[in-house]
Amino acid sequence: MTSESKCKPSRELSGVIRGYLIFYNLAQLFGWAYLLFQLITYYVAGPKEVPLWGIVKPIVMIFQNAAALEIVHAATNIVPSNVLITVFQVFSRVLVVCGVLLPTPTGPDSSGLPLALLAWSITEVIRYLYYALNLLGAVPYLLVWCRYTFFIALYPIGVMGELLCLHAAQAYVGSKKLWSLEMPNKLNLTFSYHYFLLFIMFLYIPLFPQLYLHMFAQRRKLISGGTSKKVQ
Questions:
Q1: What does the pLDDT read at residue 12?
Q2: What is the pTM of this model?
Q3: DSSP 215
Q4: Positions marked catalytic
Q5: Full domain range(s) for residue 206
């Protein structure tokens, strides 16, 4: 799942903050565009000796983890986002990347990886371009339409990919007791990373429909009769 923060109007931002946000959004735009390029060329060029994750890992690590800054943006109110929603949206992806794809061999082998990467990269290219142009006060209607239409297919695809990666990893995590803590120990605590992953998967059931319906509400508000409203 992905963060849906919106930029404040540029007139309400100081020059330094506005410049930083433009730089951040453009950097993310080019990073995710490059990832999309890597993904397309990987499958167009045919089978390779190096698996997909081995090729895209550095870019995914850099730009997905950089999205944690959006929690800071929301917490400091430089963008008008709900902090808790932003935390969950960013955390869900960071967990897939750092808690599933990196530490397990089964996560990257999942058929969910290309699905998640495809949905993430297309969504983020559109999203960050939208944010950058919004800060410059130059968002074309076509981009507004793409942002609030493509999600209809991309969100379910991305969630399916994330869940497939989580499912592929949880059995390995359970068998190896990865990142788990059992009694007895000096801390007198117990923690099962396996059950934690299962709990995260369960959370998708109540939370994803709410986020998905929220985007439909935004679509109705921002796309009306072929004209876009200026995002505030």
A1: 66
A2: 0.89
A3: H
A4: 155, 162
A5: 10-228
